[in-house]
Amino acid sequence: MSSQDIAATSLLRRDETIAIALLLAFAGGYLDAYTWIIHGVMANAQTANLVFLWVYGMAGDWAKALHFIPPILAFAVGIVIAAWLRRAAGGRASAISTLVEILLLIGIGILHNRMPEIAGTLGISLVAAMQAAVFTRVEGTTYSTVMITGNMRQAIEGIFALASSGAAVGALRRSGIFTAVCGAFGLGAALGALMTETVPDLALGLPVVALLIVLLRCEAAPSEASS
After folding, report:
1. Three-state SS letters, the chain
2. Taking the chain, what is the end-to-end CA distance rounded to the nearest angstrom?
3. Are the C-beta atoms of 24 and 131 separated by less than 8 Å?
4. Cβ distance 44 to 146 under 8 Å?
5. pLDDT at 157 over 80
6. What CA dihedral angle connects 19, 216, 92 and 14, to 10 degrees?
7. In this predicted model, what pLDDT tens digit does every residue of 40-70 receive, in sequence order?
8. pTM of the entire structure?
9. In terms of residue numbers, what domain contains 208?
10. Sign of the dihedral defined by the CA atoms of residues 49, 215, 30, 145, in that order
11. Would you state the pLDDT for residue 169?
12. Domain presence at residue 54
């Protein structure tokens, strides 16, 4: 690793660390599995929601098609809120958005059996959008915590570059990071499906714990930076 890479690592923002990326990817996969099983929509994958919208719409089944509009709109609202939060809060945006996500998930979990189905869908899609818009980089490289397509592409490209042209070791490290993020997302989806099927009333507990750890790590940054 070059001296520039070492310097960049030492100055790395706490919300761009691998640990936080893995925790957020775990939560992202978990919430997608949860909303698919409980509500029949995706919290994160708006591509899938849009495809289902038009598949059912073109088949003339507008009752099913319209079911996919609320999460798409909620995701859009979440992106706007996150953009405003980044402008208003600056470096604290990651911690504040994580706290909002935690409170929303706790509220949805408590009201799981009482609130209308659409309310849970809207709340979780809002959470997913804020996470996607605020946490966008890991070790300085753009990635996603709520879907794996781009992460998988970068992982495979890194392995190919290393195998074909002897790319720098840093490329292998980045490829490993993206592979780990994809794995964490898959693990989250697997546990999300298991917990939602077995203990639906408590299913949102695990992503809340993951986000609490993220919040604590984000908030630890100022004290460590000053030491």
Report:
1. CCHHHHHHHHCCCHHHCHHHHHHHHHHHHHHHHHHHHHHCCCCCCHHHHHHHHHHHHHCCCHHHHHHHHHHHHHHHHHHHHHHHHHHHHHHHHHHHHHHHHHHHHHHHHHCCCCCCHHHHHHHHHHHHHHHHHHCCEECCEECCCCCCHHHHHHHHHHHHHHHHHCCCHHHHHHHHHHHHHHHHHHHHHHHHHHHHHHCHHHCCHHHHHHHHHHHHHHHHHHHHHHC
2. 25
3. yes
4. yes
5. yes
6. -30
7. 888 887 888 899 999 999 999 998 899 889 8
8. 0.86
9. 20-216
10. positive
11. 63
12. yes
Do residues 126 and 77 touch, judged by C-beta distance below 8 A?
yes
* 123 conformational bin, left if phi > 0, alpha if psi -120 to 50, beta if neither: alpha
100: closest CA among 87, 115, 72, 81? 81
Q: Are 96 and 89 in contact (CB under 8 A)?
A: yes
Would residue 225 count as lying in a domain? no
In this structure, is residue 122 part of a structural domain?
A: yes
Does residue 10 fall inside a structural domain? no
Closest Cα to residue 135, out of 222, 36, 13? 13
Widest Cα–Cα separation across the chain = 63
Radius of gyration in angstroms for the set of CA atoms belonging to the chain, rounded to a whole number:
18
Counting the structural domains of the chain, the total is 1
Q: Are the C-beta atoms of 146 and 128 separated by less than 8 Å?
A: yes
